[in-house]
């Protein structure tokens, strides 16, 4: 592959795939692979064609990832880079290392933002970056830094441990709060308003994403159990 990648395919053109396309299309030749969602003007390709890009971004729901990996594996070019953007990292990392051929580079990533929080641009946002195979991750990380992102290099296990708290508890609290029904507004304190604003940031996330965050992260259940136990203890006056 050349020093700088020239082509990038996005497999999965949901809300996050569309966000990637919007911000990266000025810099790379993009194509889209999604049988259910059509791009307005980007080339629409099948998995075989998508696999021929310099960089292949997997933006599919986690339950679909294994099937997509098997579909593209025979068609990936030597030196190409495959990147997933799932909200958990241990499971996708294991699948990619098991299924993808040795001649491709692999990065497990998790953009720590979404379509709502990055509506105004990428600058100032963070992305978790887990290089799994190859050295091309350095130039890709440099490219992302050039777009204003803070690239945080970590491991899949450490990522999932941190996200069990950061995302697991955030979504648990936010979804629970919104299920209480109409929330008070007239006498809301500033701290309560901040809590409601945080809940609003994730209320439109898909059920698939919620399931991934709460159940596909092996570290989430113990953190959740401890949090609920602490909450119950506080409510009981302990």
TrEMBL record:
Keywords, in A-Z order: Oxidoreductase
Pfam families: PDH_C (PF20463), PDH_N (PF02153)
Gene3D superfamilies to which the protein is assigned, alphabetical: 6-phosphogluconate dehydrogenase C-terminal like domain, NAD(P)-binding Rossmann-like Domain
The UniProt record lists the keyword NAD: no
Keyword Protease: no
Ranges for domain Prephenate/arogenate dehydrogenase: 6-238
InterPro entries according to UniProt: 6-PGluconate_DH-like_C_sf (IPR008927), NAD(P)-bd_dom_sf (IPR036291), PDH_C (IPR046825), PDH_N (IPR046826), Preph/Arog_dehydrog (IPR050812), Prephen_DH (IPR003099)
Protein known as: Prephenate dehydrogenase
């Amino acid at each position: 592959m050349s020093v700088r990648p020239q082509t990038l395919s996005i497999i999965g053109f949901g809300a996050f795939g569309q966000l990637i396309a919007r911000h990266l299309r000025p810099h790379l030749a993009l194509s889209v692979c999604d049988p259910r969602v059509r791009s307005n003007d980007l080339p629409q390709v099948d998995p075989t064609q998508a696999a021929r890009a310099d960089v292949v971004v997997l933006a599919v729901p986690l339950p679909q990832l294994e099937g997509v990996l098997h579909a593209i594996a025979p068609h990936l070019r030597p030196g190409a880079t495959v990147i997933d953007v799932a909200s958990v990292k241990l499971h996708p990392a294991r699948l990619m290392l098991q299924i993808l051929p040795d001649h491709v580079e692999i990065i497990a990533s998790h953009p720590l933002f979404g379509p709502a929080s990055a509506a105004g641009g990428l600058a100032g946002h963070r992305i978790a970056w887990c290089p799994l195979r190859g050295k091309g991750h350095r130039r890709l990380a440099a490219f992302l830094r050039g777009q204003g992102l803070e690239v945080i290099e970590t491991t899949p296990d450490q990522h999932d441990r941190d996200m069990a708290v950061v995302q697991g508890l955030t979504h648990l609290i936010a979804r629970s709060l919104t299920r209480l029904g109409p929330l008070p507004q007239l006498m809301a304190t500033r701290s309560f308003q901040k809590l409601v604003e945080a809940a609003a940031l994730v209320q439109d996330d898909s059920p698939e994403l919620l399931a991934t965050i709460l159940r596909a992260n092996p570290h989430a259940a113990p953190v959740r159990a401890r949090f609920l136990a602490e909450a119950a203890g506080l409510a009981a006056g302990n």
